């Protein structure tokens, strides 16, 4: 499968963009005319630079307001086209994009437009060039790929073909199955873009809110399946207009772009077995059976404080690593690892970020296959030397440069807790609190990273994303989205902070990067758990009494239940499926905290309670320097 991306999708000057595109592994690049016009090199030099990066210029674009113009404007359009052809030949590309006319002067009529393209095809043929016609969703007369195809068909010229763009088709909800009957040789290139579902002007939506396939809400896979049914085997190219992308890292955006195309191609291959797209072979998305462990890094002094907090939550230290300063705590099916070893990645992570939950382990069906897929999709493999008797655990770099490990139930990885750890005498001073599993982990990141990591998880793991939710912090908005699977064995809440004054932004600033900010543990009886936690000396996060007065009125709760909730600082929510109970710890360090939840059929994450939780956490943090509002 040949991949390409338009330079308009990335930030920087043309050289910056080409370097990022090549580094990400693309085969080709669409040169957006404005990127060329503001660059201080000739067309010939630009073409040489592209080829020096190992790329092919797949398309020069756009050529606007061509078809259906009255004289004398019509003659002028052909003069402009000849000049475009001059530039293309010097640059070394043979395909130009002509987008449907938006000029108020344009005349309608399929035959008139076809005649114009027939003449343009003759001129292009003399130079060995090709012309691709694209229907803009906001075109004056042509805004449907079916009409654009009819014009191309009537033009009946070998140098005139069709360019299909998923955004223009899907934004107008045009039946994608109409693509299946188009001859593949008449499709000159496929442009792909996704977008969130927003009710707004099509032009504005297109120019500011496009994103990579799989990052939005449009049925891009259905579009691509229809394309594959034609037998198309040419370039898949990205044309992404996005304000956030144009201000971000060109390298990171390019990596996301190529990952999105490879993932899309893999989906097509699995659903359209006769597709001729040459997609890289990779294992299927991994089924996650659960979060196997969370690993913290801390030095000796801070480790003792962290371990005291963990013990207060009812965890018991059950084992020590045979050769490293690493302790294992257990409760139910939950494993928490505290790593105070100064060597290796954990020690380096502590030096940069302080005490953090820097690594997570996922239990999957095949750990090596999970990493193989991730690497095929552009993830960075993580490896470090292993000592005698240690098992190399397959892993990749994840959010904030942390580590995502993969375990399975095979002979080696399935026995790692026995082979690498030795039991220690259990401390019976703490009372088990009835925590049974990790309900979800919450990762906090800069808002501009959110799409990157959503695509990262959903392309590697058999999981889906939920709609975005706005979390109200007194100092700003935090955008939250969840990656989860159908069984509920994987839930990752992802919180994008837009400024450092929010609680989430404070966490990122103080820990020098994105990462796991809180863990939610599940219980089958939150009131019994609250009692056990209290007996352990655990102090829960104090919630305002006003919250409970409103809660009782809002849900019509029995006053006795309200008093039980209030006495234990338990928050409550309800949806169409059931009830949800939440209990929080105060923050540890610069924003890390824990949550205990009980689900009674409830499917959400207590978003309505976030404002009350944040207010309470901010009150707790304020003495350490988080700004007041």
Q: Could you explain the architecture of this structure?
A:
By secondary structure, the chain is α/β, with parallel strands linked by helices. It has 3 domains: 3-271, Divalent-metal-dependent TIM barrel enzymes (TIM Barrel), CATH 3.20.20; 288-423, 2,3-Dihydroxybiphenyl 1,2-Dioxygenase, domain 1 (Roll); 435-624, 2,3-Dihydroxybiphenyl 1,2-Dioxygenase, domain 1 (Roll). The chain has 21 helices and 25 strands. The strands form 3 sheets. Strands 17, 18, 19, 20, 21, 22, 23, 24 and 25 form a 9-stranded mixed sheet that branches. An 8-stranded parallel barrel has the order 1-2-3-4-5-6-7-8, surrounded by 6 helices. Strand 1, helix 1 (14-24) and strand 2 (28-32) form a beta-alpha-beta unit. The longest helix has 22 residues, at 250-271. The model is unreliable at 624-629 (pLDDT under 50).
Brief digest:
The chain is α/β, with parallel strands linked by helices and 629 residues long. Helices cover 35% and strands 24% of the residues. Strands 17, 18, 19, 20, 21, 22, 23, 24 and 25 form a nine-stranded mixed β-sheet that branches. An eight-stranded parallel barrel has the order 1-2-3-4-5-6-7-8, surrounded by six helices. Strands 14-15-13-9-12-11-10-16 form an eight-stranded mixed β-sheet.
């Amino acid at each position: 499968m040949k991949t390409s991306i338009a330079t308009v999708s990335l930030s920087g000057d043309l050289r910056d963009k080409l370097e990022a595109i090549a580094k990400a592994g693309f085969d080709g690049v669409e040169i957006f005319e404005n990127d060329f016009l503001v660059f201080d090199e000739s067309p010939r030099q630009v073409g040489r630079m592209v080829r020096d990066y190992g790329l092919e210029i797949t398309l020069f674009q756009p050529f606007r307001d061509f078809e259906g113009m009255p004289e004398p404007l019509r003659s002028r359009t052909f003069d402009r086209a000849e000049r475009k052809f001059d530039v293309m030949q010097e640059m070394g590309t043979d395909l130009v994009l002509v987008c449907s006319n938006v000029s108020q002067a344009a005349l309608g009529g399929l035959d008139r437009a076809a005649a114009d393209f027939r003449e343009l095809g003759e001129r292009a043929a003399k130079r060995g060039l090709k012309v691709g016609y694209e229907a803009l969703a906001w075109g004056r007369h042509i805004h449907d790929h079916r009409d654009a195809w009819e014009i191309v068909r009537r033009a009946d010229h070998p140098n005139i073909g069709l360019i299909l763009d998923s955004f223009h088709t899907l934004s107008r909800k045009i039946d994608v199955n109409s693509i299946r009957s188009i001859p593949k040789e008449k499709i000159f290139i496929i442009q792909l873009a996704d977008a969130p579902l927003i009710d707004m002007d099509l032009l504005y939506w297109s120019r500011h809110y496009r994103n990579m396939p799989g990052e939005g809400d449009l049925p891009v896979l259905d579009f691509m399946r229809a394309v594959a049914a034609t037998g198309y085997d040419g370039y898949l190219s990205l044309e992404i207009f996005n304000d956030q992308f144009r201000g971000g890292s060109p390298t990171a955006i390019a990596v996301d772009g190529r990952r999105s195309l490879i993932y899309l191609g893999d989906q097509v291959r699995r659903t359209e077995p006769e597709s001729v797209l040459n997609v890289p072979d990779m294992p299927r998305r991994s089924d996650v059976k659960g979060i196997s462990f969370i690993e913290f890094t801390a030095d000796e002094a801070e480790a003792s404080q962290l371990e005291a907090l963990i013990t207060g939550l009812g965890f018991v230290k059950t084992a020590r690593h045979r050769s490293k300063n690493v302790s294992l705590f257990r409760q139910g099916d939950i494993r928490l690892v505290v790593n105070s070893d100064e060597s290796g990645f954990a020690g380096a992570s502590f030096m940069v970020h302080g005490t953090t939950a820097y690594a997570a382990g996922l239990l999957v069906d095949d750990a090596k296959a999970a990493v193989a897929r991730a690497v095929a999709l552009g993830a960075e493999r993580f490896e470090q030397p292993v000592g005698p008797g240690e098992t190399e655990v397959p892993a990749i770099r994840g959010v904030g440069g942390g580590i995502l490990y993969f375990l399975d139930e095979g002979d080696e990885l399935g026995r790692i807790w026995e082979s690498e750890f030795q039991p220690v005498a259990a401390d019976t001073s703490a009372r088990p609190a009835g925590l049974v599993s990790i309900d979800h982990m919450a990762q906090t990141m800069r808002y501009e990273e959110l799409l990157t990591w959503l695509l990262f998880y959903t392309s590697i793991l058999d999981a889906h994303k939920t709609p975005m939710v706005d979390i109200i912090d007194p100092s700003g908005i935090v955008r939250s989205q969840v990656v989860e699977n159908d069984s509920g064995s994987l839930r990752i809440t992802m919180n994008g902070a837009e400024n450092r004054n929010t609680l989430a932004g404070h966490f990122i600033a103080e820990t020098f990067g994105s990462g796991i900010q809180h863990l939610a543990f599940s219980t089958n009886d939150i009131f019994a758990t609250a009692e056990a936690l209290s007996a352990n000396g655990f102090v829960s996060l104090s919630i305002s009494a006003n919250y409970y007065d409103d809660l009782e009125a809002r849900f019509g709760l029995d006053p006795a239940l309200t008093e039980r909730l209030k006495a234990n600082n338990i928050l409550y929510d309800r949806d169409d499926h059931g009830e949800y109970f939440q209990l929080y710890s105060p923050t540890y360090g610069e924003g890390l905290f824990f949550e205990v939840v009980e689900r009674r059929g409830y499917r959400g994450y207590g978003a309505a309670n976030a404002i009350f939780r944040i207010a309470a956490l901010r009150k707790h943090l304020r003495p350490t320097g988080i700004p007041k509002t």
